[in-house]
Amino acid sequence: MAFLELTNVRKVFPNAQTPAVEDFNLNVNAGEFVSFLGPSGCGKTTTLRMIAGFETATSGSIVMDGRDITPIRPNQRNIGMVFQSYALFPNMNVADNIGFGLKVGGKSKPEIKERVGEMLALIKLEELGNRYPYQLSGGQQQRVALARAIAIRPQLLLLDEPLSALDAKIRLSLRNEIRSIQRQLGITTVYVTHDQEEALSLSDRVVVMNRGLIEQVGPPFEIYNFPTTEFVASFVGTLNLLKVKVIDPATGAIQVDGQTFFTGRPLVNHAAGETAQIALRPGIVQSRQHGARR
Amino acid sequence: MRKVAWVAWIIYIFGILYFVLPLFGTFIFSLQKSRGVLSLSAYQSAFADPKFLETFLFSNVMAVCTIIVSLLLVVPTAYWVQLRVPSWRPAVEFVTLLPFVIPAIVLVFGLIKTFGRPVTIFGVPVFPALTTSALSTDFLLVMAYVVLSLPYMYRAVDNGLRAMDVRVLTEAAQSLGAGWGTILWRIIIPNLRSALLSGALLTFAIVVGELTIATFLARPAFGPYLALLGNHKAYEPAALTIISFALTWLAMGLIDLVTRGSKRGPLTGAH
């Protein structure tokens, strides 16, 4: 059984014409890293906020670890969350920020101190426990926010565009750090981003969303190479869309401008003589002297 | 560039003179009680009156009570409006500005008319007249002061809340297991410190000098005492004005010290 199950989740905001999220079905396995990828307004953040409990689903159920969490308040869910704007408490230093959830949870002082030390070591900021958030760089603040979310040993970690406010170089290094920490702890993670590179490089599986609907769910390789919808094909990577005539679905033969090509795999759902569309990644095109067969 | 700096300096100096000259004049005047020499005898005679300390203390107690009630009312309200019902903000702001539109005299007569007799709802008595005992009248007085201080207190708190990302901070705290009380007490209020202090200071200044409501509710407050003194004495009111100014400045200095002395960093948002 999956660790996190979203079933028929639907969200309609008051006064909204169309639902923000609809027909959302997804099972996330324990320890899995899943990304929600899509343009802004596609419903990915809304879905994440419903898992966190900050929004209530209009209908559908969200089950975590076999327990329906829809009626549970956000502060009872034991879900760690990292925000785009870091959201560190400005009145507390780094150590107090990281220890906040433990303190609220009634842990003893030595226990908090030990865990905070562990967390600081994990994010490699051992020396900065006494600093205040405004004394840190953006990348450091986000690492503290990550440590704060993990410190409470949450069952699930949610990250809402955590790298969007950072500059390109930090983004890359923190991305790798997030992935390695996630692997190290084996924590089930849902990651929201509009950056396809982030989604493809980090995730075990990517959920591509558009206009409140899931377009495709799959491992990054599949999403990139075998998009099932035109939206996924055009949103992920660059490509050329060509109108083709299907010659033989069984062998994958197609015709463009009178030239016959082979797609390399059978074309399901297409009949011979039908007009179809193929998406061609520029990087895959090679020119050869004789009998180009691809 | 140079020219602009000059103009700015002239305006600045003019502004300072505009504020300082009357105060300076009052100060000099307060020293002239004894003919021909500058002396502190006006201050001595002002302090010698036991009514001075009595009314001053009374107004201070009222001010502290007002600040407490006002904070309890305004902080959760402004927080909730900002977090959950931002569309209500114009309406709430309008309500908090009403004391600017409704004169204090109207407010106090409304209070006396409403609470000067037993309050009933559909003929059922709810509570007796509030103006019959000193304590219940003081309660009425504090409530009136809360209304008077509303524009300042609400604005100060609202500005403070806008300077931080209330929603994200709240959600971050919630995801870490914090309930509403913890969020308000450990996150929101500590980050509102300077806003709360300035709101409290403004409230204090308004209440200690307030005349109309205290007069008509017949309570021994500092404002009516000053007015009474001004009716039959010349130098002592000037001395008392200087003293209350000095106290206000002392309070401001203390606030500055408290905010600057802490090593907690800037009181801005999370960005």
What does this structure look like?
The complex is a heterodimer of chains A (294) and B (271). By secondary structure, chain A is an alpha/beta fold. Chain A folds into two domains: 4-226, Rossmann fold (3-Layer(aba) Sandwich); 238-284. Helix content of chain A is 29%, strand content 27%. Chain A has helices at 44-52, 94-104, 109-122, 138-151, 168-185, 196-202, 220-225, 230-235, and strands at residues 4-11, 21-28, 33-37, 59-64, 67-68, 79-82, 156-160, 188-193, 205-210, 213-218, 240-248, 253-256, 259-262, 275-280. In chain A, strand 9 and strand 10 (213-218) form a beta hairpin. Chain A starts with a strand and ends in a 14-residue tail after the last strand. The model of chain A has no long low-confidence stretch (mean pLDDT 90). Chain B has 271 residues and is mostly helical. Chain B has a two-stranded antiparallel ribbon. Chain B is built from twelve helices and two strands. Chain B has a single domain (52-261), classed as MetI-like (MetI-like fold, Orthogonal Bundle), CATH 1.10.3720. Chain B is globular. In chain B, strand 1 and strand 2 (124-127) form a beta hairpin. The interface between A and B is medium-sized, with 33 and 27 residues.
Question: What's the topology here?
Answer:
The complex is a heterodimer of chains A (294) and B (271).
Chain A: E1 4-11, E2 21-28, E3 33-37, H1 44-52, E4 59-64, E5 67-68, E6 79-82, H2 94-104, H3 109-122, H4 138-151, E7 156-160, H5 168-185, E8 188-193, H6 196-202, E9 205-210, E10 213-218, H7 220-225, H8 230-235, E11 240-248, E12 253-256, E13 259-262, E14 275-280
Parallel strand pairs in A: 3-8, 3-9, 6-7, 7-8
Antiparallel strand pairs in A: 1-2, 1-4, 4-5, 9-10, 11-12, 11-14, 12-13
Chain B: H1 2-30, H2 41-48, H3 50-83, H4 89-101, H5 104-115, E1 119-121, E2 124-127, H6 134-162, H7 166-175, H8 180-191, H9 193-209, H10 212-216, H11 222-232, H12 235-261
Antiparallel strand pairs in B: 1-2
Helix pairs in contact in B: 1-12, 2-12, 3-6, 3-9, 4-6, 6-9, 7-8, 9-12
